[in-house]
Automatic annotation (TrEMBL):
Antitoxin component of a type II toxin-antitoxin (TA) system. It comes from Candidatus Faecalibacterium intestinigallinarum. Coiled coil: none annotated. It holds the Pfam family PhdYeFM_antitox. This is Antitoxin. It comes from the Bacteria. Belongs to the phD/YefM antitoxin family.
Length: 86
């Protein structure tokens, strides 16, 4: 369930930091009852960026397949494993 807090609660920075680090989900900040900002822990942010990178690479690979371009899957897998330490 998303956590939603009013902007006035940002004054307690220690509590906000704890809230962000307890959950890997973003915290939604409202201003005058409307969505205004989203905050999250550094760990969650970095994980989202890595996931976005993987999705981007998958999309590129799908386009290559549709265009009839072939890629050596073993070489691609080795590169991904090296990049992510798998």
């Amino acid at each position: 369930m998303p956590r939603i807090i009013p902007i006035r609660d940002l004054k307690d920075t220690a509590a906000i930091s704890k809230l962000c680090n307890e959950s890997q989900e973003p915290v939604y900040i409202t201003k005058n009852g409307y969505g205004d900002m989203v905050i999250m822990s550094m760990k969650a942010y970095e994980e989202k960026l890595e996931l976005l990178d993987v999705y981007t690479k998958l999309e590129q690979a799908e386009r290559q397949l549709e265009a009839g371009e072939t890629v050596d899957p073993r070489a691609s897998l080795q590169k991904l494993r090296a990049k992510y330490g798998i």
